[in-house]
Write a structure and sequence with these properties.
By secondary structure, the protein is mainly β. Helices cover 10% and strands 63% of the residues. It has 1 helix and 10 strands, in the order αββββββββββ. The protein has an 8-stranded antiparallel barrel. The radius of gyration is 18 Å and the shape is elongated. The two termini are 24 Å apart.
């Protein structure tokens, strides 16, 4: 799946470069970075760190002003956990590939939704034991973008990385970031 994301981003960049010479085609590629935050609290007897800020990278290709595709990777960071008898930590990540629908509000603001597939891993290490949870589920997001200029945009979104997990970061993620269009 990671190879698919890299291939998608590279393809989008190549298509954008090829279309830079063709002014009749409105499509373009973009890359972005963000700060994502997911709740690390959980109801299974673990006391954890709560919300943690982490990093996100993403890229995509917009075929026109309404339709596109996007792929991204979010690091859920490490979080300390405590039980009545032991201390440990959780860590994890998630990546996705999604179709993206955008609706312009005016020349500066857009709202969008994404729907696709995600793969995530969460790991719990406690009392010398480690357990992992891998999942491939649905991915969805809704967000808003403010266009600073033709190339730079600021984004804020709510993302859902599949189903709730027994430990680690919540699948509900809030993200703010910036993107650059080619």
């Amino acid at each position: 799946m990671k190879k698919l994301i890299v291939a998608l981003i590279a393809s989008a960049a190549a298509m954008s470069a090829a279309q830079a010479q063709d002014t009749t085609t409105p499509g373009h590629a973009y890359l972005g970075v963000g700060v994502a935050s997911a709740d690390h609290e959980d109801g299974n007897g673990f006391n954890s760190d709560g919300y943690k800020a982490s990093g996100k990278i993403f890229g995509g290709y917009e075929f026109n002003q309404n339709w596109g595709v996007e792929a991204g990777y979010t690091d859920f960071r490490k979080a300390d956990v405590n039980t009545a008898t032991a201390r440990g930590e959780t860590k994890g990540y998630g990546y996705y590939v999604a179709a993206k629908a955008t609706a312009p509000i005016n020349e500066k603001f857009d709202v969008y939704g994404k729907l696709g597939l995600q793969n995530s891993q969460r790991e719990l290490s406690i009392a010398g034991l480690t357990t992992k949870d891998h999942a491939t589920d649905a991915y969805g997001a809704v967000g808003v973008q403010y266009k600073v200029n033709q190339q730079v945009g600021l984004v804020a979104e709510y993302e859902r990385y599949g189903k709730s997990k027994d430990f680690g970061a919540s699948p509900n993620v809030l993200t703010v970031g910036a993107r650059y269009s080619f």
